[in-house]
From TrEMBL:
<keyword id="KW-0413">Isomerase</keyword>
<feature type="binding site">
    <location>
        <begin position="233"/>
        <end position="234"/>
    </location>
    <ligand>
        <name>substrate</name>
    </ligand>
</feature>
<comment type="function">
    <text>Involved in the gluconeogenesis. Catalyzes stereospecifically the conversion of dihydroxyacetone phosphate (DHAP) to D-glyceraldehyde-3-phosphate (G3P).</text>
</comment>
<dbReference type="GO" id="GO:0004807">
    <property type="term" value="F:triose-phosphate isomerase activity"/>
</dbReference>
<dbReference type="InterPro" id="IPR035990">
    <property type="entry name" value="TIM_sf"/>
</dbReference>
<feature type="active site" description="Electrophile">
    <location>
        <position position="95"/>
    </location>
</feature>
<feature type="active site" description="Proton acceptor">
    <location>
        <position position="167"/>
    </location>
</feature>
<dbReference type="InterPro" id="IPR013785">
    <property type="entry name" value="Aldolase_TIM"/>
</dbReference>
<dbReference type="InterPro" id="IPR000652">
    <property type="entry name" value="Triosephosphate_isomerase"/>
</dbReference>
<protein>
    <recommendedName>
        <fullName>Triosephosphate isomerase</fullName>
        <ecNumber>5.3.1.1</ecNumber>
    </recommendedName>
</protein>
<feature type="binding site">
    <location>
        <position position="173"/>
    </location>
    <ligand>
        <name>substrate</name>
    </ligand>
</feature>
<keyword id="KW-0312">Gluconeogenesis</keyword>
<comment type="pathway">
    <text>Carbohydrate degradation; glycolysis; D-glyceraldehyde 3-phosphate from glycerone phosphate: step 1/1.</text>
</comment>
<keyword id="KW-0324">Glycolysis</keyword>
<feature type="binding site">
    <location>
        <position position="212"/>
    </location>
    <ligand>
        <name>substrate</name>
    </ligand>
</feature>
<keyword id="KW-0963">Cytoplasm</keyword>
<dbReference type="Pfam" id="PF00121">
    <property type="entry name" value="TIM"/>
</dbReference>
Amino acid sequence: MRTPVVMGNWKLNGTKSTVTELVKAFSTVANDAKNVDVAVCAPAVFIGMVESLATGSNLKWGSEDCDVHTQGAFTGENSPVMLKEFGCTYAIVGHSERRGYHNETNEVVAAKFKSALDNGLVPVLCIGESEAEYDAGKTLDVCKAEIKAVIDLCGIEAFNNAIIAYEPIWAIGTGKTATPEIAQNVHKGIREFLKTFSAEVADGVRILYGGSCNAKTAPELFSQPDIDGGLIGGASLKVADFTAIIEAAKANA
């Protein structure tokens, strides 16, 4: 049985006061959600705050990105070693905003995945197609290529200690959400692709849905057999909404 994950991605949002409010609230919720892994991925400047506020609770935390380098003359980057030192469990890699705004290729994302994994973090590999690719029926082709780049570099066994987050780009921040049936079909297709390399790894890896997942859509999405929780954007900035999503995961655990 795969333990569900509900993970917030705060993106470029937060103040000292809002981070304090959210972490205190989510720490309490996480303590009551023993059959769900609850986490938040914060802007790097706030990770130390999250650590101090969440330590001792069941809430886990991570970073929104991770560099391929551990140290050196790389101004503005965040080393996986440094992130680990601040108690991070997770590192998101390959988010569509990183791929799009920073021109991160599949190979760059795979290198970041490896860097996170090699330094004790759990990579959260974001994959997903654009609206044009969806309309052209290329959803699984895109997802497979993004996963294959990681397998080529790290091997299939790397997914024993990683998470995949399927986020259709056309649904991120748009209010559009893939129907539970569409999302399930993609998640199943991803798992079937992984099975061509290792059935054991495919059965164990947790695949999250992202892309405007909210309190209203979460219950039916999380009831699907191949959806193991969510990577939550805007709703993770609202205590009531994120709590409701966690409750939906608990109900399907």
